[in-house]
Amino acid sequence: MTYRDDVEGLDASILMHPRVWEASGHVENFTDPMIDCKQCKARFRLDTLTETISEKNKEKFLKEFDPAINTKEISLEDKINELLEDQNQSEKFLSVINCPQCGNKGTFTQPRKFNLMFKTFLGPVDDSANVIYLRPETAQGIFVNFLNVANSSRQKVPFGIAQIGKAFRNEINTKNFLFRTREFEQMEMQYFCKPGTDTEFYEEWKERRIEWFKSLGMTPSKLRFHDHPKEKLAHYAKNATDIEYEFPFGWGEIEGIHNRTDFDLSRHQQFSGKSQLYFDDESKEKYIPFIIETSAGASRSFMAFLIDSYYEEEVNGELRSVLRFHPKLAPIKAAILPLVNKDGMPEIARKIEADLRPFLRIFYDDKGAIGRRYRRMDEAGTPFCITVDTQTTQDETVTVRERDSMEQIRVKIDQLLNYLTGKLR
Ligand code: ATP
Fold this sequence. Notes:
Helix content is about 30%, strand content about 30%. By secondary structure, it is of the alpha+beta class. It has three domains: about 5-30 and about 120-305, Bira Bifunctional Protein, Domain 2 (BirA Bifunctional Protein, domain 2), CATH 3.30.930; about 30-115, Herpes Virus-1; about 325-425, Rossmann fold, CATH 3.40.50. Strands 1-7-8-14-11-10-9 form a seven-stranded mixed beta sheet, with helices on both faces. The protein has a five-stranded mixed beta sheet with strand order 18-17-19-20-21, sandwiched between helices. The chain is globular and about 85 Å long. The structure holds adenosine-5'-triphosphate.
């Protein structure tokens, strides 16, 4: 955000007027199809049910559903998804499969729509008139504040508003650690542009966003776009793509990039009765801007970075686990380690710590053998370890050990900050 002068930051409310979620389409459309097992009461998302069925069973169930099906010539997963999506076929298909939890056959209920928004009540009375929602995405807080930000920041279209914050979704099944949780962190940016320039900005942001992941060290071959086919686009979108990462459990979305047209601002104008027209000083036109959205999960992306940077390797006959985080992502930038807790070393180490702490996230560790302390920092992904040793007390230099190469060099104490900030950049 601070790298660009055309993007402003925002921290909007988590609880907003319920009409916001009617305008956005969430009250009506933010649903997943779910089914329950009548026997064991387990609940599943219909559209991801295939993931719970083994390859062998996929074939078995399809044959049972239709003995004439040639399972060698089709993608079993696609065929099952097609059957589950088809209202006329899904009931029959569900009757031939076993519940993934209890193994009983034909125990599923009919699919039902389940709204993913968490509800709560405004004020002391639990009355349906007082229902409000925890935000299921940070985007709507940006849309409803578009004119506030435009007017107070003196930004002119094209410009963006970005927000990092919690989002809440009552997911039917949470899974895969941080990949799908009910409370998660989003980082979204909405770029407001003049109608007609939207396709150009959509393409530009697509490239910028995948480059962002690569620039922070994510393995390029584990990143790809998944463009949404026209017939599967969400109701608000003209174009949409997902940036996907290859997780150990398969490819999964980490960010969505959408051309949302003027859908959002038009709907908020309609539902609030407040004009969302933007006056363009230069062309003297009034229009509702189009919006290009980049919508990433901060927690889900963090998990991708975590997996991507984890390595195990053998060093001197011992296993070393190391997180090769890009320095910008490393939660601790440098560790200060006095070799021993005597001979003036702790005093020098504490002084170095105090000098560096205003500028860098530092960790002070004086517990255990130096080799073990290095390993602990490797596991935490700390790019540099600074060791105060006997030589320090003689020539005011310290050992700086680099995490990935494990190389050690000597640096003058008064040069340390320059040295580290240069490397961390
Ligand atoms: P999915 O298809 O995986 O449910 P989505 O298409 O609903 O995701 P968006 O609404 O586009 O996701 O949300 C933007 C981003 O927020 C996603 O790319 C993902 O990184 C993150 N995200 C969405 N749902 C969750 C969740 N339940 N837990 C963690 N992160 C999530």
